[in-house]
Each structure stands twice: as C-alpha cells, then as structure tokens.
Design the sequence.
C-alpha cells in the first residue's frame, strides 16, 4: 500500500476528491479505495501503461521553440478528477444559459446594438475591441448563432463555488484531449468502469458533426463538411486531424480550397472541384481570407468571407464571434444574461475590476500584489501578472501598462483554485551509494516510490450551439503539474486528467 | 478525395514498401555472406547500387564495409532513402492523413518508427540483425495487412495500392538489375577461366540466385512453379513476367492497372496506356537473350517508364 489518504493534505483549498484528510468525497470513494489498495509496482504498471498508450496513440501537442516546432507527448495524470452528477447537471444548465446569452449579444452587436442603446454595455468597450469585425455588421447568421463551439473555463474557489473564468469563442481547443484521456483511462483502470456509473464522453464527435451539418446552406442536400486547419505546424494540429477523422470529414488546408466566380467554396479533389457547405475553421479570423483581412495570410482562402456573406457557405465559428471573447467583455456577461434572458446567472463570474473604470483602476493599482491582471485579448496564459508571485519590478511594469491602456486590462482576486490528488514519483536512492557505484546493479537498486500531492486544476467544458445546445459530459481538466503553480496551460508546464461525472444516485 | 491527401497516401505507401524491401535486401545479403567463401569480392557494394545512392554514401563513409553500408541504409537520417528516414516520411504523411487512414495505421507506423530508432545498435551486429530486420519486415507487413483489413476500398485505398505496387515494381527491378548484372559478369568471367574454377564457383552462383529469390520471399513460390534447379534466366523470367507472384514486376503492373481503372476518368486513360506499353515490352522480350546481353539497359528503360508513370499520376491527380 503506497497511497495513504490520511497523509494527503490540501490545506486552505477545496479538494475535488477528498473532503478532509483521509475522507474521500462520496463520488470519489470507489476510486480512492481502489488507489489505496495498489502497491508501488501496481501503480508503476498503471502509470507506464498510460504513458505507453499516449505514445502509441500519438497523442501530442506541438511546442514552438527556436529550432522549429516539436511534438511532445501529452502530459497526463492517471488519477481522474471527479464531479458528482447532480452538481454537474446544474453546471451544465449554467453553461447553456451563458452561451445562449453570449450568442444573443454577438448577434445584437452586429445588428441593432440594443444593449448599447439601453446603456447596459458601454459603447467605448466595443469601440476598442480588437475582435470586433466591421466586415460582419448586418450579416444574418442562421438562428442568430455565431459561436457554435464554445469552451468556457471553470474554476472552483476554496468554498466550493464554481466560477466561469473565461469564455473561448474564437477557436477553443482541447476537446480531443478530453476524448483521448478517457480512452487512456479505460485502458489503465478498466475495473473501475465496471462497478460504478461513470458517464461516457465519446458522443462529442457525432454531436459536433450533427451541429455542423445543420448549418449547411443547402438543406436537403447531403452536406459537405470540412475542418480547415492552418496545417501541421499548428499547436492544435493533432486535434484538427483527430476531429476530422472522428467525424469522417475532410481535413483541409487553405490551399485545398478556392472560391469560384459563383461565390461558392470548392475543394480540389482527384475528381476536380467539389462544393463545400460547412467549414469548421480552426484558423483565426484575421488569417481566414487575405482579401478581407490580413493580405499576407497564406493560411486562408481568398474570397472566403465574400462566400460566407452571401450565404453560400457556413463558417463555424462565425467570423467576428470573438467580440465576446475578451476579458473586459467577460465582466458584462452576468448583465447580458439578465438583459437578454431575464434570468439570474446560474454560474457566477469571478469578481472583476475593469481598469477603464476610474474607481476600479485605482483599486487595482493599489492592490497589484493581491490581484491577477489580465490583458483583454490574450489567451494561453500569456501576458498575465499574478500579483502575489510577481516581483516588484514586474508589478511596476504592469502599473504603467494599465495607466497607458486601461481598456486593455482587467483584474481579478487571486483565486485559490481547487486541487486534486496527483501522482508524484520519488526516486529513493539506496544507502551506501558510494560503495555500490561500480556495481552495475546499483542503477537497479534505486527504488521508485509513489505518493500523491495536491495540484491545482481547472475545467474546460465545450458547448455546442445549433438547433439544440449540447454540453460535453464534464470537459477537459487541466492541471498545473508544478507544486503550488496555478498555470494549467500545456504550453507552460500543465498537464491533464480524465474527468468523470459520476452518478451516485441509485 | 482531396488531391493533397491522395498524394500523401500514395507516398506513404511507397515509403512503407521501401522500408520492407530495403530490410529484405539487407537481410538476405547478410545470410548470403555467411554461405560464401570468406575471400569472395562480392560484398556490400551491390546494395548501394540497388538503392542508387552511392554518391551520397561515399561523401560520408570511407569504405562500403558491412557496418557502414548497413548503418547508411538503416539508420542514417541524412540518407533520405534509409529505413529510418522512410519511416519518418511515412509517419509525416500519415500525420497529415490521419483523418482518412484508419487510426491504428498511424499507431503502427509510429510504433515501428520508434522501434527502429531505439534499436539501431541491434542492426549493426550480425547476431541482432536478423531479429531486428524481421521485426521491420513484419511491422511493414502489419501496416499493409491492417489497411487491407480495415480500410474501405475507396479511392484512398486505390492510391495506397498504386503507390505500393509502383514502389515494389521499382525495387524488384532494381534487385534483378544489380544482382543479375553482378552474377552475369561473374558467369562470363568463370566461363573464360579454367574449368576447375568454374566448377568451384558454380555452386555459389546457384546460391546467389537463390538469394535473389529469397530477398523477395520468392524462393518457395518459384520452386512450386518452376520445379527445376535455380537458373539465372528462369529466375529473371519469374521475377519479371510472372503474373501470379505478388512481387513480380508484371503482377505489380497488373495491380497498378486495376487501381487506376477505379480512379476518376478520363484522366487515367493516358496512364493506362503507358502501363500497357510497359507490360507489352515486358512480355515480348526474350529472356534467355536478355540475360546474355542488354538486361541492364532493358531494366534502365523499364525504370524510366515507371518514372514517367509516376509523373503522369502526379499531374493527373495531385496537381494543386
């Protein structure tokens, strides 16, 4: 027996699996008992099996470095994170509500802008939005939906409350890892799936396909859906090919597509040109169409925006959907929910200070050592200031930035992100190593031992909006693998866990 | 089907076939050397002729000795024709077609790539080499078998088989070319020499022809169909003209024809004509005459013909 839950301490944080040291939460009881029954050898075997599966399945993500980009195996912790089904049901309802309001907001912004006229949303926030696309004004998006695929990041504070940290409405990624994590976990812990109800996640690709197919501008015609990728060097290429494969659709690059004189989009095939109806694009707005946006983009398709405006092709997400994916706009989402839906938000926002407001800015500048400061339009955890961990010099730099561009910054209290037990390896060196140095057996004599330590995590569920709204069962749990770290991004030392929604009701 | 994807699949299967054929070549050469007298001049050089990249070899290696040649052909990443490079290209091609080719194929190619990368040392010694190459050949065949058993016979599969058979026809013809050239010269020299020497070398000539067959896993099938002792002209005839043996050149052309007929017309017409012409040349040639004179020139022409077919396929289906 190597894991002793009585020695597991996550003081000051909400732990996802344990209530108090030694006391697993109800939904995690089976898992915790099982893990505690495993020896070091058995744990080691499970961990190796997971690593092998990840390597063999080729689950990778791409990291940019000076020498080009390299593929790294996906860092994965075998201990799953568990959410009881009853709690999840409520969260799911909250996410649907939120995305519904966000889509209403985007559609309003590109049409009448009632929310501005009614003074619920300030015009100057829009005026300075870098993700607002004037090219999209007046476009009729089918069903008024712009953000068909949304990835919202959820975090849990120390009192157990779940908050939305941000909404990714441009090209959110990570869902393939959610699916693959489950495949790996089933290979590693098949016995745990036998005697409890862990809700399946594999429905996502078919839900995604159905949603995309429903956007086709030629109803009644067998729709040609494609996934548009920037190519093999994109950090999410694995996901692009994975999703195309799982949906059974073509994975295309910009050079595979062309817009004809009839404003329809065609792909180049061995038969000649073939019309495309729906594009799940994983290319940023600004690179989509060199005629409409950045003329130097080689990733896009000239004329694509024209085809979309004329309704000859559907784009998911719609260009311009990112206007609501902005950390300043984020602060207005609770107000949007009230304004458009007349409801109270089910999942709260993290309290936010907008530096464009004089009072808020003053507070932020005085409390930089307590706050997390975020730029409005960065993702991947870049360009952030984590006040309590930053050096004074770094805080001064941010103070200047905030004063220069107040609209571009917002701040939030440093959340005490929840934790979950994560498997850590310790190599125990044998005694008398000196004596053994020339002995070949010395290398084998060092023992590996396992223990669990709390690590901070978040959760990214994915929400699909079409004729219906669909939320993934759980989502992608990202975990900061470094002790004490709050940064969960895979590009910066984060890993992931399988996420189980467990139904404990009989 | 996307042109770009068709191209990638076609190349992927060419690379996998190349991996298998190169491993076969090295394996049989290793075995052959164990049987021949120690002072035989015949060594590792012919393999470089077969693969056709001697210049590159001599830029980086001193002598065509066993370790250098094997290293160059198996694990040299600067050699674009090495097994490791071919696997890495196949892997890259699969990476961009993972949505079309069954996912297990990617897992297997990835697996094989990692195996070769991590066990190169094993291939350097004669003791480990047999097992190492056996795993490679099996690995490549596993990919082929997996795809045969799991991939719908759509155009993607046609391109896959087209690439495989074109590469195989090419490799078989190369093996015949160099081995035969080498052996025929040997034959002529022994004929001119004293009778006693001829007697001594004849058994080895036989062995070398067997090695040609064995390198293509053709020995057993040859014996079943020819039922005579292994003789040069019969072997060449079998490997060039046999319609039923899967590694025979004629059979490969047959398969290419079959695949091309399923690809979108009328772009395939011109390519089918080229294949028909190659087949005609192949069947009309007098093999006993050819083994005496002009085999190398004949095979050279044949390879130029294959090269032209490749160009035609690329122009018809891969052009962007």
Sequence:
């Amino acid at each position: 027996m190597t894991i002793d839950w009585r020695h597991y301490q996550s003081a000051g944080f909400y732990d996802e699996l344990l209530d108090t040291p030694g006391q697993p939460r109800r939904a995690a009881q089976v898992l915790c008992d099982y893990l505690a029954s495993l020896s070091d050898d058995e744990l080691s075997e499970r961990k190796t099996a997971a690593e092998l599966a990840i390597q063999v399945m080729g689950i990778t993500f791409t990291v940019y470095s000076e020498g080009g980009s390299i593929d790294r195996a996906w860092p994965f912790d075998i201990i799953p994170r568990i959410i009881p089904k009853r709690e999840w049901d409520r969260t799911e309802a909250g996410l649907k509500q939120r995305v519904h309001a966000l889509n209403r907001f985007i559609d309003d912004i590109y049409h009448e802008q009632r929310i501005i006229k009614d003074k619920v949303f300030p015009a100057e926030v829009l005026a300075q939005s870098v993700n607002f696309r004037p090219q999209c004004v007046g476009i009729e998006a089918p069903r008024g939906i712009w953000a068909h695929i949304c990835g919202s990041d959820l975090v849990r504070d120390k009192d157990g409350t779940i908050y939305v940290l941000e909404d990714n409405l441009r090209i959110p990624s990570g869902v393939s890892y959610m699916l693959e994590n489950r495949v790996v976990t089933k290979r590693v812990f098949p016995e745990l799936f036998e005697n409890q109800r862990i809700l399946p996640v594999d429905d996502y690709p078919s839900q995604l396909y159905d949603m995309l197919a429903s956007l086709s501008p030629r109803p009644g015609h067998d729709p040609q859906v494609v996934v548009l990728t920037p190519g093999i060097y994109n950090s999410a290429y694995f996901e692009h090919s994975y999703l195309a494969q799982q949906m059974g659709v073509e994975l295309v690059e910009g050079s595979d597509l062309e817009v004809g004189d009839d404003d329809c989009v065609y792909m180049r095939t061995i038969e000649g040109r073939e019309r495309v109806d729906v594009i799940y694009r994983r290319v940023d707005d600004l690179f989509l169409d060199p005629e409409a946006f950045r003329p130097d983009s080689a990733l896009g398709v000239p004329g694509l925006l024209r085809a979309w405006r004329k309704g000859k092709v559907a784009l998911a997400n719609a260009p311009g959907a990112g206007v609501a994916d902005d950390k300043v706009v984020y602060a207005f989402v609770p107000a949007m929910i009230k304004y458009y839906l007349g409801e109270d938000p089910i999942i709260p926002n993290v309290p936010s200070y907008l530096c464009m407001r004089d009072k808020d800015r003053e507070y932020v500048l005085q409390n930089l050592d307590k706050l997390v400061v975020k730029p409005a339009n960065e993702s991947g955890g870049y360009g952030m200031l984590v006040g309590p961990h930053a050096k004074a010099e770094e805080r001064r730099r941010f103070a200047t930035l905030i004063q220069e561009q107040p609209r571009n910054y917002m701040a939030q209290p440093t959340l005490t992100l929840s934790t979950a037990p994560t498997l850590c390896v310790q190599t125990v060196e044998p005694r008398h190593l000196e004596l053994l140095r020339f002995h070949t057996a010395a290398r084998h004599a060092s023992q590996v031992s396992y223990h669990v330590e709390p690590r901070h995590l978040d959760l990214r569920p994915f929400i699909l909006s079409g004729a219906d709204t669909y939320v993934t069962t759980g989502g992608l749990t990202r975990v900061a693998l470094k002790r004490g770290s709050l940064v969960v991004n895979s590009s910066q030392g984060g890993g992931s866990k399988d996420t189980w929604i467990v139904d404990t009701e009989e | 089907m996307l042109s770009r994807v068709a191209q990638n699949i076609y190349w992927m299967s060419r690379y996998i076939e190349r991996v298998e054929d190169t491993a076969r070549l090295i394996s049989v050469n290793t075995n052959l050397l164990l049987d021949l007298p120690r002072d035989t001049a015949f060594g590792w050089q012919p393999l470089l002729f077969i693969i056709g990249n001697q210049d590159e070899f001599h830029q980086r290696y001193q002598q065509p000795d066993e370790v250098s040649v094997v290293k160059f052909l198996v694990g040299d990443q600067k050699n674009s024709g090495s097994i490791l490079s071919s696997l890495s290209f196949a892997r890259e091609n699969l990476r961009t077609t993972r949505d079309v080719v069954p996912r297990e194929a990617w897992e297997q190619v990835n697996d094989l790539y990692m195996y070769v990368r991590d066990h190169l040392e094993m291939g350097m010694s004669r003791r480990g080499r047999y097992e190492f190459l056996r795993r490679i050949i099996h690995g490549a065949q596993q990919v082929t078998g997996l795809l045969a058993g799991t991939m719908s016979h759509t155009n993607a599969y046609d391109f896959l088989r087209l690439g495989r058979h074109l590469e195989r026809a090419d490799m078989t013809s190369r093996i015949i070319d160099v081995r035969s050239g080498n052996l025929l010269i040997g034959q002529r020299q022994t004929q001119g020499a004293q009778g006693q020497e001829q007697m001594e070398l004849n058994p080895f000539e036989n062995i070398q022809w067997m090695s040609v067959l064995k390198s293509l896993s053709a020995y057993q099938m040859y014996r079943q169909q020819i039922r005579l002792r292994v003789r040069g002209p019969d072997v060449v005839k079998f490997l060039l003209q046999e319609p039923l043996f899967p590694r025979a050149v004629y059979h490969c052309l047959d398969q290419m024809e079959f695949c091309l007929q399923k690809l979108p017309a009328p772009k395939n017409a011109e390519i089918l004509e080229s294949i028909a012409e190659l087949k005609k040349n192949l069947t009309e040639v007098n093999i006993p005459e050819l083994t005496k004179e002009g085999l190398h020139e004949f095979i050279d022409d044949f390879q130029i013909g294959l090269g032209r077919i490749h160009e035609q396929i690329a122009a018809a289906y891969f052009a962007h």
Summary: DSSP finds 16 helices and no strands in chain B. Residues 153-320 of chain B form one domain. The CA atoms of residues 91 and 107 of chain B lie 9 Å apart.
